[in-house]
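The methods section describes the discrete structure representation at length, but only in general terms. An entry of this sort, consisting of the sequence and the corresponding backbone structure tokens, reads as follows:
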Amino acid sequence: MIRQAESDLEVELNRKYPGREVWTEDGAIVIRIPMAFRKAGGRKEIILPEGADAAGPPRPQPQRPLVVALAKAFRWQEMMECGKVKSFEELGKREGVNRAYVRRILRLATLAPDIVEAILDGTEPSGLSLRSLSKNIPLMWDEQRRLFGFGGR
């Protein structure tokens, strides 16, 4: 069916959001845009359908808690390797945290480089969080990729 668009808004919506529907209901304009949700660090992000143009693709945003934890992990690893601190206990006292927290964060320094890069870019798999990374991290990078949903890398 071919018809003339009712407004510039409708033409713009057709261009940006293929598959959308517009109708009026009780004097209100209702717009339905197909989308999916992605869980990222306890919050949900809207994923637009293939071919949708939201003024260019949104740039993924890194999860701040993950980025901060990674920064701590690599800084603390450097401090231990250089001999600035000699134990988890000493590092914990210096940083004002307990030894168990130091161990959990330091484990992040063993993540595969592509996992670290994905976290810093904000392109990690949906649902990856500091909590899921705080559990036992396998030493083998292939096992890490499988466990944390980085298949196909």
